[in-house]
Hints:
This protein has helices spanning 5-14, 26-37, 74-90, 112-125, 139-145, 167-180, 230-237, 306-319, 378-397, 418-430, 435-443, 447-457, 473-482, 488-495, 498-501, 507-521, 525-542; strands at residues 16-22, 42-45, 61-62, 95-105, 135-138, 154-165, 184-186, 189-197, 200-208, 214-224, 245-256, 266-269, 276-282, 285-289, 293-294, 332-341, 359-362, 368-371, 464-466, 469-472. It is α+β, with helices and mostly antiparallel strands. Strands 1, 2, 7, 8, 9, 10, 17 and 18 form an 8-stranded mixed beta sheet that branches. It is globular, with a radius of gyration of 23 Å. The relative contact order is 0.14. It binds flavin-adenine dinucleotide (FAD). Flavin-adenine dinucleotide is lined by residues 22-28, 45-48, 52-55, 58-61, 63, 190-191, 225-229, 233, 250, 290, 336-338, 373-376.
Amino acid sequence: MERSREANINNLKSKSYDVLVIGGGITGTCIARDAALRGLTVACVDKNDWAFGTSSRSSKLIHGGIRYLEMFDFKLVFEACHERRQLLLNAPHLVYPQAFSFPIYKGDKNGLFMIESGLILYDMLASFRNVKNHRMYLHDRAMQLEPELDGDRLKAAGVFYDCSTDDARLTLAFMLSALDDGADCVNYMEVLNLHKSNGKLCGARVRDALTAEEFDLEARVIVNAAGAWGDKVCELDEPGIPEKLRLTKGSHMLVPRGRARTKNALPIISPADERLMFVIPRGHFTLIGTTDIYYQEDLDHPFATRDEVEYMLEAANRAMPRCHLDKIDVISTYSGLRPLAMKEGGTDVAASQVSREHRIYEGHSGLLMIAGGKLTTGRSMAEEMVDLVSRRLLEKHGIETKSGCRTKNNPILGTPSPETQAKVRALSYKLKFDSDILEGLLKQGSDALEVLAMVGEDESLAERLSPEIPHVEAQVRFAVSAEMACTVDDFLVRRTEIYYTERDQGLSVAGKVADIMGDILGWDSGERKRQIKAYEDTVALSRRYAE
Ligand SMILES: Cc1cc2nc3c(=O)[nH]c(=O)nc-3n(C[C@H](O)[C@H](O)[C@H](O)COP(=O)(O)OP(=O)(O)OC[C@H]3O[C@@H](n4cnc5c(N)ncnc54)[C@H](O)[C@@H]3O)c2cc1C
């Protein structure tokens, strides 16, 4: 497998592809992997970094979508429960069980009977093969479980299970798997234009955002998996075509775990508009969100506003009245855009009521677009899309796809065996790594052994980036050489979660990261300064709510 960006770019220039995938979020990378596994020649490009869009800005849950039960969307829940299980099998180092405590209060619209029936249904839709089935706890035991809840109002709590993940690393892992299976994948490569021959698509003009070089590439079928940018890609194909998507913005915030100490994740209801949100423990932090607001502004730089942060704080404080969370507790915020596929004429509803089901569209020139869906269902969405790609390749180009879908029960690249994990633990112990460093290494799957081998050759690479930050220099080097990290942002926001979880969001180590990356990538001092400034801008956006 060739993980270097340059080698992949050379391939884009010289090869002719069965399929070009536009967009390197979860949808695009899953499609690239599925198509490559079926023996198709595949190119996948993203105009920014892998998972730069919504795929690094989600609630980081792999879930059946319990709230869709209220909308009677059983098909969506069934599919998502099935895919949750697939991800637990296929990416166990990145997807882990997450218990939820569902509080039931006196006077709730949905009382104990309704909630328990819903939880039974949730277990049923997972064919009773979830991590564990649900359990109900009456008042006293529920308060023992979650002492932060409002004991005066609480009647009971139902405990059920979903999963948590690192969304950016999950997307990266699918991209690396696609590379391993033969796809050519390049980040920072924007599709500027689409080429046609006799009215049918045959290729694209792309621009390398790092060098400004432009060139053409050939592809028989083109898939638009550009998420929130999907309509913009359609516009390249058919200028003036009506938009298919409505976008909503969802914002989250992180606070220290000690300020919102729940045992399990909590569904919470906003007192402002009765919307469901979540409080999710993530190591030393608690993630709270999300909002859901129609959005028409800058797609590349959505940010959480003061109103959104106040809305989330209000809901969290109502659910956990002793916490008294305040803006001062907020470490970081982030916002993502939901590309909701609208039904014709169906736009006049609250954003949170629009279906999260995905839709596939086909343009007159053959452009295939997929929009909507979830991180959880990326694999099955890809299966459906590549089935269609295969049909079009056969009908229009006489190309037969070698095999059917091969992504079911098929672990992604880097899924470590128990022996590999034991080796990573033993080597980390030998190097006297703290447990927080080991935790990050384990998320790198079998690649952790490569990182540890780098340290074996040069012990200075075992140095932590700072006493507070649980990452070592070797991880920065590895991100550049084997994970296509091209900017300081890539490392601090998407190869690690430093941007989200450190009090200073990693500003104090941005210079060090720029130096390590710059030494490998040949950055001069001007470029190093530019990289640091770009990262400062990213952090400033996350703090705009406080202005
Ligand atoms: C707030 C929020 C919370 C969510 N939480 C969850 C959750 O907990 N669990 C879950 O399962 N789902 C969740 N979802 C849904 C899920 O995150 C999204 O459905 C999914 O990430 C969308 O992925 P995507 O690949 O379609 O789009 P994106 O991740 O946005 O990827 C699209 C990519 O296309 C690229 N692109 C755009 N234009 C071009 C071009 N011209 N050339 C090249 N590349 C281009 C962009 O740079 C971008 O990286 C959440 C969504 C939101 C908004």
